[in-house]
């Protein structure tokens, strides 16, 4: 480890990631030896694997609900105990490989821009050509460069800012990163997306059911974070939540009700869905097959998204305990 990286630590989280975890830890260890791995109940030998690679391991207590947010907070706490003088922390998901040069670029940017709390870079899918679901992920990861409102699970954060807002919310089962970024921005900090390769991600999605569950989780997170910050003037994610409710529920119900009770002609209103697909594809470029796949996904995912929204509000109404929504 070079002296320039002595003030950076890494927190890796995972559950049954197998070979992906090995690749993740090895890629990180080339840049720093200050790594904490947090395991959330793996049964594939991940804990032993991590220990064999000489990283500190936190094995989460499974007697109470776990989440990615709780795992990251636990890893950060352990990192602080071991290395209290660190200034930056890089959070990495166990199914990702850290790209060479990313840590140095992210740290340099944070050093030069004191008002920025979080930096992230380009996340790419390792095997986008394998399945349409991997292609969708790769397209989703390609967010605009510059100031952003949120980041994903892989990002470098200024420890001072992270501690100022109390870290992630342990009780969130999804959407914990955007929710953290929202609180940081309310404190005057900025979130930034760099034009730099950050990680290779391995979604490993090969079935429609996996994609559906992932979209359910997204809908749940929109509803949950919007509810938590319902009094915020920013109206964060409210437009996204509104689109899920309208396109996933209200519009088809209204169209079908009108067709049944008034005239079958109203069933033509369902053509709004293919028209929306064409509009999105035209916006992104009709010559690219990936844009058509992304357009179809963007329209169809409102239905599983609505399922997630309903699940959240049912939990609220019954005061139930949130349950992790996993697609792998």
List keywords for this structure.
Spore Coat Polysaccharide Biosynthesis Protein SpsA, Chain A; 2 domains; 9-stranded mixed sheet; 328 residues; globular
Account of the protein in words:
The protein is 48% helix and 16% strand. The chain has 328 residues and is α/β, with parallel strands linked by helices. Helix 10 (272-284) crosses helix 11. The chain folds into two domains: 3-206, Spore Coat Polysaccharide Biosynthesis Protein SpsA, Chain A (Alpha-Beta Complex); 207-323, no CATH class. Strands 1, 2, 3, 4, 5, 6, 7, 8 and 9 form a nine-stranded mixed β-sheet that branches. It is globular.
Summarize this structure briefly.
The chain has 328 residues and is of the alpha/beta class. The chain has helices at residues 19-29, 46-52, 68-82, 102-112, 132-141, 159-164, 176-186, 208-228, 238-261, 272-284, 289-300, 302-318, and strands spanning 8-14, 35-39, 56-59, 88-93, 96-98, 116-125, 146-148, 155-158, 190-201.
């Amino acid at each position: 480890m070079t002296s320039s990286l002595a003030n950076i630590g890494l927190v890796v989280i995972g559950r049954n990631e197998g070979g992906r975890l090995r690749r993740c830890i090895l890629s990180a260890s080339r840049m720093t030896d200050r790594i904490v791995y947090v395991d959330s109940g793996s049964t594939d030998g991940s804990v032993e694997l991590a220990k064999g690679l000489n990283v500190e391991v936190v094995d989460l207590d499974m007697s109470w609900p776990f989440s990615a947010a709780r795992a990251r907070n636990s890893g950060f706490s352990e990192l602080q105990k071991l290395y209290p003088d660190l200034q930056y922390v890089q959070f990495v998901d166990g199914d990702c490989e850290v790209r060479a040069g990313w840590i140095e670029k992210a740290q340099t940017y944070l050093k030069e821009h004191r008002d920025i709390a979080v930096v992230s870079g380009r996340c790419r899918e390792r095997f986008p050509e394998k399945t349409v679901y991997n292609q969708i992920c790769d397209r989703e990861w390609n967010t605009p460069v510059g100031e952003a409102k949120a980041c994903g699970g892989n990002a470098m954060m200024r420890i001072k800012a992270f501690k100022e807002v109390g870290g992630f919310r342990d009780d969130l089962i999804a959407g914990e990163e955007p929710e953290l970024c929202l609180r940081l921005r309310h404190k005057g900090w900025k979130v930034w997306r760099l034009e730099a390769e950050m990680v290779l991600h391995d979604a490993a999605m090969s079935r429609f059911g996996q994609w559906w569950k992932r979209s359910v989780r997204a809908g749940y997170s929109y509803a949950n974070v919007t509810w938590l910050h319902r009094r915020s003037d920013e109206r964060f994610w409210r437009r996204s939540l509104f689109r899920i409710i309208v396109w996933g529920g209200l519009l088809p119900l209204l169209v079908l009700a009108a067709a049944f009770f008034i005239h079958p002609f109203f069933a033509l209103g369902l053509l709004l869905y293919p028209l929306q697909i064409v509009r999105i594809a035209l916006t992104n470029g009709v010559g690219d097959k990936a844009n058509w796949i992304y357009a179809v996904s963007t329209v169809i995912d409102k239905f599983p998204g609505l399922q997630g929204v309903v699940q959240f509000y049912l939990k609220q109404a019954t005061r139930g305990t949130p349950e992790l929504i996993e697609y792998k």
